[in-house]
Amino acid sequence: MSPASQRVTGDVLLVGSMPFEKPEQSFREVAERVGGHLSSLPDGEVGPRKNWVGMLPELVYSQHPDLEELRSPSTGTMEQPADPDWDEGQEGFWTFRVKPGAEIRFDDLLYGTFALESYEIFRRQREEGVIPQGVRFQVSLPAPMSAVDFSFEEPEHYPMLRRAYMDALRREIDKMLERIPEEDLAIQYDLAWEVVDLAMGDRSFFRFWPRRSFEEKLEDHLSQIPAMSEAVPEGALLGYHWCYGTWGGWPMTELTDLSLCVRLSNEAVRRSRRRVDWVHMPVSVDPDDAFFAPLADLDIRDTKVFLGLIHETDVEGFPARVEKAHRYRSDFGVAGVCGYGRLDPAELPAVLDAHKECADRLS
Question: 151 with 133: CB under 8 angstroms?
Fold first, then answer.
């Protein structure tokens, strides 16, 4: 067994979010039902983080003295759109601009504060035997483009804003490390708007995004990888989640095969300045054989692959998806396609039970 795969011993990955208000609920529910299959356990991105990058407009950008709102929701909170044909002109969308002449610095993104609060609960529950020994505390963080480009309508400011965000993200991780040992930490970077942008090809998802070719976009988004990887110390686990998004329904763009995820994985491992412990690739609910064929081109050394073969409670369809994937990749773990933060909490136990049953079948 290779050194990296020894670090990721679990066969199930939880991408991140859970539909709870408190991390205690998330840790306990997940550990009870899936704990023996996990290498790392997220806190569920509970409370204001349920809307993922929607937290940043609410708690960070709207409070910044050098930013001004262009549009904002009447409720003060971004909400999941019910219509898959939503656009940025609808009520609830929140965007900003940089004030003229301002140089942006983000002093507190709050990710470190949330992580430290949750880690104390995680550590206590592990000491009590609720969480299995050896399971790490997982923190999922939005990549810079996902954090910035969704919320700002003036592309000329993207480079400055992304640098400011990445600088702040380093400080957030350093803050976590003041109380969380490296060997107890797993960092997953979520790249959602990057993947959605690339899946659009030469088109743009938002009217205010610059018009660029696929290859121009790819190079821009991959240019984030070195700085992101450097921010995570070697003792911690590092993973990348290629996300097709859930705003208005999953997937936000067409997912025809794994070619984009394979290319991103190959490039991320090549460009990262430290080992990459895992990559996560979503899978459509009814893929054909050709969907998995790009896995034959995967060149990521000993990085663990987690395939999003679990579609909530669809255990019956799982074996067929596994069989097709095995034609091109002999070794992989399993996961859902994305997080569950916007799922009805009453539905989550059955979804977690399905994760365990699918993992048992994989074994």
Answer: no
